[in-house]
Structure formats: C-alpha cells, structure tokens
Design goal:
It is built from ten helices and six strands. It is of the alpha+beta class.
Length: about 500
C-alpha cells in the first residue's frame, strides 16, 4: 500500500488555505489537529453500546439501524411479473408462494417496516453525543476613526475554528421512552405486514376454491347440455312418428336453451376468477396460467377445538397484536409527556482556535496587536421550562385519553375476532354436514336420472319425468360442489381469524 506523505499532505492543505487568503502556516497545523479531534469523537460515538431497555431481538444500532436480513421479498414486492411465454401451472401452494412474493400490498408494508426500523435508529442516536465542526473568516473595515480606537473595530480579519461536543445527560426519560416507542412502532409495522400477508393468503385460497368449484359446475353443466341434446333429439324423433306431442319438443328445447345459457355464464365466471387470481399473484390479467387442483372426496377433521381457536387468536391474531402495540406506544407517549415536567441537563464541551490579524497599525508608535488564542470550553447546562400555561398537563391528559381510547378499541377487536371464530366454526360444521348429505343426493339423483332415461326409452316414462330427473342431478352436483367449496373457504377464514400460518393444502 502506498504510504501517505505527511509533508505533502500539509503542503496541499497549506496551498489550499493560501489561495483562500490565509496568511499563517501555523493555522494549518491547528486545522488538521481539529479535524483529527472531530474524527476521534465520531469514532468514540460509534463505539457506544445499546442502551438499557432495548429489545434483545433488535440488532445493535451504533449510528443507524443494521438490517441483517433483507425484509423486502425478492423480487421487489409490488412489481408485476412478466407474462410467461408458455402456459404456467400453479397449485394452491405455488399460488400462495407467488402471491407472497409479488403482492404490492405486502411490498408496501415491507417498506413501512423498513421505515420504522430507520425511525428506531434515529431515536437511538439521540441518546448519544453529537459533534459539530465549524470554521470561518470574518472581516472588519473601519471607515473613519479619531482618538482612542477600540481594536475590535479597526481593519482586521478573524479566522475561527471550533469543535463542539454535546451530550444529553437527563431529559426526564423522554429520550429512552422515545426510543422504546420507536421499537414498538417497528413491532407494530411487522404485525401489520403479517396481517397483510395473512389477508393475501386467505384471498388466494378463497378465490382458488371458487375457481375449482366453478370449473366443476362447468363440467356438470356440459354433461347436462349433452343429456338435454340427446333427449331433444329423441323427443323430436318420437314427435315425427306421432309418438310424442309437439309440446314435449318445445319443453326440451327451452330446458336446453336454459342449460346452455347457464353454461355460458359459468364459463365466463371461470375466466373472471382466473383474472382475479392472476392479479392476486402479481401476473398480467391475460397471463396463460393453468391452476391445478380438484376437490377431494374426503373431508379432514378440524385439528382444534373452539376454545383452542379462541386462545390461538388471542395470542397470534395480527389485528390484536397491532392494537396492543398501539396501546403500548400510547403509554410511552404518556411517559414522554410526563417527562417534560422535569428539567433537562446537558453536557457541553468544545475546542476553539481564534486568529485575529489587523491589516495596519493605528496611530504613531502603535504596535502590532495581532494575536492568536486556543482554548477549551466545557460545562453543564440545566434547562427547566417550569411554566407553559398548562400545556404540559394537557398533553399528558391527552395521552391518557388516547390510551383509554385504544383500550376500548382493543376490546372491540377482541369481541369481533371472537364472533368471527364462532361464526366460522359453525360454518365448518354446517358445511361438513352438507357434504355428506349432498354426496348422497348426487348418487341418488344419478340413479334416478338413469332410471328415468330407461323408462323414457321404453315409452313408460314421460319427457317431463326425464327432464325433472336431469335437473335434479345437475342441482345435486352443484350443491355438492358448493358444500365442498364452502368447507374449504370456511377453513381458510378460520385460519385467518386465528392468525394461523397453516393453509388448506389438500383440495
């Protein structure tokens, strides 16, 4: 490594000051010493430890907070992924993973968490020393004088160099409470981000289950249309040979048109749900994505009791955590307001170098009065604002009222979460019962449709009987699909209400 030459460094600084008009080379040495002193102060400041009361989970913050791990998903949240060239296939788990990576809502809260982390670092640095380096030159030009002359007002220029150190010693615990409040704000931001992630996961699951259900309805309606087309052809053939009245032809055509119309609407709903899923996953609406999954016939048991669900929600629901953190922040704000009743004590110190150069001597026999002075200053100052016309008291009372407000909001949120869990728990039980009954109904309707078909072909049954049997089969299949979807959506809403990270993986 090439070593720095001291003489060359001084010469460069001296040349710089000479161009600025400085007459003294000794002043260069003082300037370099002062800069070195300021650098040492900054190094000492950076070596300070984390204050008492800091959260052990938060990394040490020397001068600014250190983020050990990237808190923003990769790729950057909120960015829309490029449209894939070939069709992409996503299962439910892959869809959730994709949404968590690219959701703009999650990205916004991730940056909000980073900002809160920076605020905690700012509050941390306010408890430690600060140093200021200043340098300047001032000129005095005297237009006229007579008699005795004050040397401060004759032609001269003054060069000043100072380094000031400031350290707060006591501020009524406002600085420490402010730092702890900033840490709580960071935890609140993390809870909000987690709540947003849970909301995105639930939205993806509910939409995915709607898509699977609607695709099943499309297949059921396609089968119904084929059955109605076959029945219509048979009725028309019977009508041509005078074995069936023309009104039966009209009835089958009307039912066929109704089924085709319902099929068209359901297919459009499938396309709409795919667009909604693409948007949730951060993909373009027209992205050729194929979502894989079908409903399984078996229904898993609920792994928690109602009491366990309520307890888990109380401990880990992000909405409740946000309210508790907000109330804790309000308590810190009340302590900060109360700390303003106390005086503030600060430690101050500094080094000052002053060089006064007179442009000329004054009077006959006058002497050169140029002088230089280098000195240190230090002291402790006490500042107590003991009267503000009741402002401090009002701020403290306002903080107490804010705490009471947040406490009531927390009670309301706890009641809302409890009602959500109770309602969702009942929905799960009801959907489970419907799955059993509708599955039995599908089997019975399929058997009834088959028997009606045989009776119609044997000219024992009527067209009305056959059409009714086909409608009952389509309705039974739709009800069964709806029950399966309702059960899974209720499970997704329950895990969201509990703040649980588990998802309904099996379709």
């Amino acid at each position: 490594m090439k070593r720095f030459s001291k003489s060359k460094g001084y010469c460069r600084v001296s040349e710089l000051l000479r161009r600025l008009g400085h007459p003294s080379s000794a002043y260069v040495h003082k300037f370099v010493l002062a800069v070195s002193f300021a650098g040492c102060l900054l190094v000492l400041t950076a070596a300070c430890a984390v204050p008492v009361g800091a959260d052990a989970s938060v990394p040490p913050l020397p001068m600014a907070p250190i983020v050990s791990e990237p808190m923003v998903p990769t790729p950057v949240p909120g960015t829309v992924a490029a449209a894939p060239v070939l069709p992409v296939r996503y299962t439910l788990a892959q869809s959730i993973e994709q949404a968590l990576r690219t959701s703009p809502r999650i990205g916004a809260y991730a940056y909000r968490t980073l900002s809160a982390n920076m605020d905690a670092g700012i509050a941390y640095t306010q408890m430690f020393p600060s140093a200021t380096l200043s340098a300047g030159r001032s000129y005095v030009r005297n237009e006229s004088y007579s008699g005795l002359v004050d040397p401060d007002y004759v032609d001269q220029h003054v060069d000043t160099l100072s380094v000031q150190l400031y350290q707060p010693l006591f501020a009524g615990m406002t600085l420490l409470n402010g730092y702890q409040k900033a840490l709580l704000n960071e935890e609140l931001a993390k809870a909000e981000q987690q709540g947003t992630e849970d909301q995105v996961v639930m939205d993806v699951q509910v939409t995915f289950f709607d898509l699977v259900k609607t695709r099943g309805e499309v297949r059921s309606l396609q089968s119904a249309v084929k059955r109605l087309q076959s029945s219509s052809e048979a009725v028309q053939a019977y009508e041509r040979v005078r074995l069936a009245p023309y009104v039966d032809v009209l009835q089958t055509e009307v039912d066929l048109a109704d089924a085709q119309q319902q099929l068209s609407k359901t297919e459009n709903e499938v396309a709409t749900l795919k667009i909604r899923l693409n948007m949730l996953l951060g993909l373009p609406p027209e992205a050729p994505v194929e979502y894989l999954g079908e409903f399984a016939s078996d229904v898993p048991d609920l792994p928690w009791s109602l009491e366990q669900c309520l307890e888990r929600a109380r401990l880990q629901r992000p909405d409740l955590l946000v309210k508790r953190k907000a109330m804790a922040m309000a308590e810190k704000e009340a302590k900060i307001a109360y700390g303003r009743y106390f005086p503030r004590i600060d430690l101050q110190g500094g080094y000052i170098s002053r060089d006064v150069t007179y442009d000329s001597t004054v009077g006959i026999g006058a002497v050169d009065r140029d002088y230089k002075s280098d000195y240190w200053t230090g002291g402790i100052t006490l500042q107590w604002r003991f009267f503000e016309s009741g402002r401090t008291q009002l701020e403290y009372q306002r903080a107490l009222h804010q705490i009471a407000t947040l406490r009531e909001q927390l009670r309301e949120t706890e009641s809302l979460v409890s009602s959500q869990i109770h309602a969702t728990f009942l929905s799960i039980s009801e959907a489970r019962q419907r799955i059993v009954t509708t599955q039995k109904a599908v089997g019975e309707a399929a058997e009834g449709q088959a028997r009606s078909q045989v009776r119609f072909e044997a000219r024992v049954g009527t067209v009305v009987e056959l059409l009714d049997a086909q409608a009952r089969l389509t309705r039974a299949e739709t009800n069964h699909l709806q029950a399966l979807a309702d059960f899974r959506q209720a499970m997704a809403r329950l895990t969201y209400a509990m703040g649980e990270k588990r998802t309904f993986e099996q379709l």
